[in-house]
Amino acid sequence: MKIQVLGSGCATCKKLFELTKKAVEELNLKTEVEYIKDIQKIVAMGLMQSPVLVVNDKPVLVGFISDIEKIKNLITNSNPTNENTSNKKSECSCGGKC
Known about the structure:
Elements: E1 3-6, H1 11-26, E2 33-36, H2 39-44, E3 52-55, E4 58-62, H3 68-77
Parallel strand pairs: 1-2
Antiparallel strand pairs: 1-3, 3-4
Helix pairs in contact: 1-3
């Protein structure tokens, strides 16, 4: 599983990174959370807001931070080894328009 937080390095981005690391730890996942400060990567994904939580190369949270339980749910629902996840849509700030 590949988990990344993309952001500018601001306090909000750093908080999402820290919450995501804690969520991964609480889920007992054997994966690292990568923090990417390259704004061009965000733009290349077609996004204009940060921070961005990316799971397996798909943005699942854009433009805000959330509580740790929602972050854990987003990670769990994006895990390809999880049953019945292929039919679930990721939650993001676009309201399902992406």
